[in-house]
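Example 4.3 (complexes with small molecules)
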Amino acid sequence: MKGTAIGGKTRICGVMGDPVAHSVSPAMHNAAFRELGLDYAYLPFNVGADGLAGAVEGMRALNMVGMNVTIPHKVAVIPLLDEVDPLAQQIGAVNVIHNKGGRLIGSNTDAEGFLRLLEGHGIQARGMRVAVFGAGGAARAVCFALASRGAEITILNRTADKAAGCAAEMAERTGRAFEALETNPANLARALAKADLLVNATSIGMAPGADKSPVSRELLDRRHTVVDIVYNPIKTMLVRDAEKAGAVTIGGLDMLAWQGALAFEIWTGRAAPFDVMRRAAARAVKSHEE
Ligand code: NAP
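Answer. The structure with NAP bound is encoded below.
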């Protein structure tokens, strides 16, 4: 493996969120920098809501090359940037900032990362009936990606108002109809009976709550393709239950590696070593599981 030591010319990027202690992005990006022999380093920054504006301004002051933005700042960061690219504006969430000569530009690579996950598994979203669980930042990226490819989407969320708000915004921005439902047993049964593809974009099932699933096992069927974008643990309870039901199952690691690879390309202008990044992310998740 190639590599460089940190020195006076090292370019700095990182991730800001709260919490970030379990982020696997530092392992994934630093492995990619080492692989290509790039003089970059990637660091975790635990930034609470009251520190967000200062952290964004600090990127400029410290001449950082870029930053990933994660829970809970993907929406709140938007007004603090100089520019937000059209895709991130439409999704309404930014997960990558690029410092281009002092101008901070926001992008969203979650949506494209999700599409690449689908493509990698040979899934064509066009005409599919999809149940998306969640109405937060990740769910918006997933909904936008699916709608842009012609899927028919039902959003199910614990907080009904957020499901309705997300559906209305996505419908306006994509020109497609969305259904919004509160998550309850009757609505889940109805939505899953007609869905081909199920996507968990809530944080249910994420460690330390790894014994939870957004769907009870009896509702899962061999007709379903089940994607869980939660990647920690690598095999979530939903994926385990869906496997037992005979469904096709896909975990969130590929989306994680793709959104990271796309951010890497924005910052460095180089083709990302996707396989290196995916392996590093998997190793980092497993080390947290142990
Ligand atoms: P977020 O904006 O905070 O949204 C969280 C969503 O989960 C909301 O819809 C929330 O419902 C729901 N939720 C949380 N706890 C719940 C509970 N106990 N019961 C029912 N619903 C619950 O977070 P996010 O950024 O969208 O991220 C969501 C998940 O996606 C995280 O696990 C994250 O790690 C994962 N993710 C993965 C990738 C990847 O590359 N694989 C990329 C982005 C995110 P309410 O509206 O009712 O609060």
